[in-house]
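SAMPLE LOG
Freezer: B-3
Tube label: C17
Construct: single chain, 200 aa
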Amino acid sequence: MGGVFSKKKESNVTELQRNILQLKLGRDQCKRRIKAYNNQLDQHKQMAKELLKNGRKDRALLMLKRKKFVETQMARVDGQLDKLEQVIADVEHAQMNNMVLSSLEKGRDALTEINNAYPVELAQKILEDSEEAAEYQQEITEMLTGQLNDVDMEDVEKEFDELVLMELPDAPETEFEEVKEKAGIKKKVAEKRTAVALEA
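STRUCTURE (predicted):
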């Protein structure tokens, strides 16, 4: 029963995360210390003014010396704060670079895997097969829908002209009537061709 309560939780925090936390704690402590120094500076200055008013020059001078000492300490802590903030910024920048490089590496690996799945030769074969299948399908569609190519269309027009000539009445007896009839026939043939072309 004691074993249940004595188990320690395993931490998911890495050593790097602990170090970053330590840096940030140090930074926060420096900020608190600077704030305390600012309060001390104000107090020492105020006390020096009061002591000077009361005629205690030696004590006022001592307060100003303490104020100067606090200013020196504050400058030192402020320098440490600057260094800590610079290190934190550098670490965060390095983490970002590491994340970007890791992402680029994963992207490269994924792209390589995809490219290996479909080599260039296979892609070319797929494209060629697709083109052949499309051409074959087009031929079947043309056969089923009855679309005619240029050669077939010429044959149809020739046969149509022959039919029109067969339906023409016998030649007239006079030349004038013959010329008039030919003009009418040509006109009818042209009209029928136009009508057939429009229907197609």
